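Hi everyone, sorry if this is the wrong subforum. Our group has a chain we'd like a structural model of before ordering constructs, and none of us has done structure prediction before. Sequence below.
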Amino acid sequence: MTDLASLEKDLNHFDLGTRRHALSALAAQARTMSFPKRPLMAFNLHCHSFYSYNAEGLSPYGIVWMAKRMGLAAAGLVDFDVLDGVDEFFEAAELLGLPVVAGFETRCFLPEFSTRELNSPGEPGVTYHMGTGFVQSALTDPSFQAFFKGMADGAGKRNRDLIAKVNAFLDPVRLDYERDVLPLTPKGVATERHICQAYDDKSRQVFPGDAERAQFWAGKLGPDGAKASADPGKIQALIRGKTMKKGGVGYQAPTRETFPAVAEVNRFIQAQKAIPMMTWLDGTSAGEGAVDELMDTEMKQGAAALNIVPDRNWNIADPETRKKKVALLHEIVRKADERGLPIGIGTEMNGPGLKRVDDFDAPELLPVVPSFTRGARILAAHTRLQRTNGQGYLSEWAKGKFPQVKAKNAYFEDAGKELIG
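Answer:
Right subforum, don't worry. Here is the predicted structure as tokens:
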């Protein structure tokens, strides 16, 4: 029998055959393994995989196995600009007996908030946006294939333009996009985080000595560069913040043409019978501060669920900041409940040091855990019903059967209880 550690490593191999063999072997071993039972139900519905960027290098298979080993009640796949991992995610979930939800994340433009910052810092009108509840990777409609390819192609062009600017600044640490960045992804869909990893890797080739590398980064990024140079997570975050975000040499100010409109992305999501999902950062920006206007605008354009990354809103060292953000978290949850928006939550896992699962027993989260659990049940039930008989949350069947969202949510929550606690 292959040892567990080797199988878990192979589970995240870029070669599908290798990781599928590992999944099969792990599923066989799982029949005789014991998994933890958590005193408080826990789940993570917002996990990025290596198809976009996962800080641990986890594949969709790897995420499901991680959730199973941790005793989580459910898991969710959310990759950036791709649906490539959806079929794998369901394959692993069926073998391991875990309820799952799958979707994607992208950046969009919300014209009604063109002068106000939303949840993309320093970029008025730009919002991170999601679709959840997809049931397959394939897009059979050519127009939708073209639309999704356009999003990925746009991201690739922005990456190449960014690298051209950052290369000039970081010389002699220079990247070739095809040679240095794309091999870090299984299907050539790279993000800013892959680029940061590639710059870190390249700096270790150009400056193999710790002292000379620290000196290089200090010269390019300031004193913090020297302090962070030995820690991949810290130096990659600093590279991103100093060179790619607003004020950095590689920053590209967005326009209305840079990203697709929210309404356009929502039409694509709805056509797949998936669920358009607005996302919320922490309520402190001008746009998110106009919370009622923002939620009503998003819902008019098709948003039918809300995504939150809770750890950003309570796990904060400064007591006053934590108090303020916890209050805003509780407010957005209350407003989502009033509007009948199911809430999906998770930790993303797309940066070094991020948790695998939220602290559901944190005092700051306990008041909103019932809303998080209800959302997980609704989204898991949608996924199961859409996959089995086409009766998902936004299906024609649901529209005819539930004219009021309250009744629809109650039905899907009850169905979800059979899957999640």
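For your construct planning: The chain has 18 helices and seven strands. The chain has a mean pLDDT of 94.
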